Automatic annotation (TrEMBL):
High-level lineage: Eukaryota, Viridiplantae, Streptophyta, Embryophyta, Tracheophyta
One Gene Ontology cellular component annotation held by this UniProt entry: nucleus
Entry protein name: Epithiospecifier protein
BP GO annotations: glucosinolate metabolic process; nitrile biosynthetic process
Sequence intervals crossing the membrane: none
SUPFAM superfamilies: Kelch motif
One protein family per Pfam: Kelch_KLHDC2_KLHL20_DRC7
Keywords in alphabetical order: Iron, Kelch repeat, Repeat, Signal
Length: 337
């Protein structure tokens, strides 16, 4: 099992390898991670395909790189895979997933990082797993999109995307430049379309991303940083065994400029021995470490179908518009298709 942490820019390697310490979650995939201040919280996932590992909330101190398994109280969620998390202020929201009986869930939980207490909230959108969830901290909203599960399209008030955007699992979902971006995903085949939602107008638009777009993919890592949507890894060719196997994974990193609609492959030191390599089904979160905004990537599935337990932080060099992370204490929850 790999248990190391690395700090990497997308233009060059800047910090040597860092060892993780403490009682951590170890290798897994189909799990979730999110950041609150200088702490990353991880929950859920699998080591054996489709078998949830545990329901422990783990915390990683990003200053000391030390993990701890938290002792929690309240309405503790049952173990699950294909789950998502997002942070709003000091609160972590956990939604959906798939339980040990392979049943898709629609429970919405909150976890208070100040008291380590769980609370079960009113149910969210229809049951689903392998979906995406993201916080728009400045607007005080959390968005959920896509996934596998029961029929049903909306949690609250967002308009339909229409026929231009197919339902999908494993999509990328990010907030950038004040808009919500749906990027790629899987619906019978790997997809390469891009759509954006403008909360100011309540309108969805299909985005022409140009000829330099990445190949179709799903279950990749994604983050909104300034006006950019940053992507890493993902599955570009699914396994014939479905969830039980490992498909073909990418090790590439790309950025989408939301103003021009142009993709660009990033120089991510892919030939370095410290590069994370091809993977998908990772836990990931946008956040800030050492005053640099970036993408935190934890674990995932490898081309050999072995689960990974390493952590990387990507603070890409993009432009001067990159902004520090801002938290909000209010929540207006809504979801797309």
């Amino acid at each position: 099992m790999i248990k190391h942490s690395f700090l990497l820019t997308l233009s060059c390697l800047v910090v040597p390898q860092l060892e993780q310490k403490g009682d951590g979650p170890g290798a897994r995939s189909s799990h979730a991670i999110t950041l609150v201040g200088d702490t990353a919280y991880a929950f859920g996932g699998e080591f054996t395909p489709r078998v949830p590992v545990d329901n422990t909330m783990y915390a990683l101190d990003l200053k000391t790189r030390t993990w701890s398994a938290l002792t929690t109280t309240g309405d503790v969620p049952p173990p699950r895979v294909g789950v998502t998390m997002a942070s709003v202020g000091a609160t972590v929201l956990v939604f959906g997933g798939r339980d040990q009986d392979h049943k898709d869930l629609n429970e919405l939980y909150s976890f208070d990082t100040l008291t380590n207490a769980w609370s079960l909230l009113p149910s969210g959108p229809p049951h689903r797993s392998y979906h995406s969830m993201v916080t728009d901290a400045e607007a005080g909203r959390v968005y959920v999109f896509g996934g596998c599960g029961d029929a049903g399209q909306r949690w609250a008030e967002l308009p339909s995307l229409g026929e231009a955007c197919r339902p999908r699992g494993g999509p990328g979902l990010a907030v950038a430049a004040g808009k919500v971006w749906v990027v790629y995903g899987f619906w019978g085949e790997e997809l390469d379309d891009v759509h954006c939602y403008d909360p100011a107008t309540g309108r969805w638009d299909a985005v022409e991303a140009g000829s330099d777009r990445p190949s179709p993919r799903s279950v990749f890592c994604v983050a909104g940083i300034g006006k950019h949507v940053v992507m890493f890894g993902g599955e570009v060719d699914p396994s014939d065994l479905g969830y039980l196997g490992a498909g073909k994974f990418s090790a590439e990193a790309f950025t989408l400029d939301t103003e021009t609609g142009a993709f660009k492959r990033l120089d991510d030191a892919s030939e370095s021995e410290h590069h994370p390599g091809p993977r998908g089904w990772c836990a990931f979160a946008a956040g800030e470490i050492d005053r640099r905004r970036g993408l935190l990537v934890y674990g995932g599935n490898s081309p050999t179908n072995d689960r990974l337990g390493d952590i990387y932080f990507f603070p890409p060099i993009l432009d001067a518009s990159n902004q520090a992370f801002v938290s909000s204490n209010s929540i207006a929850v809504c979801a797309g298709r």
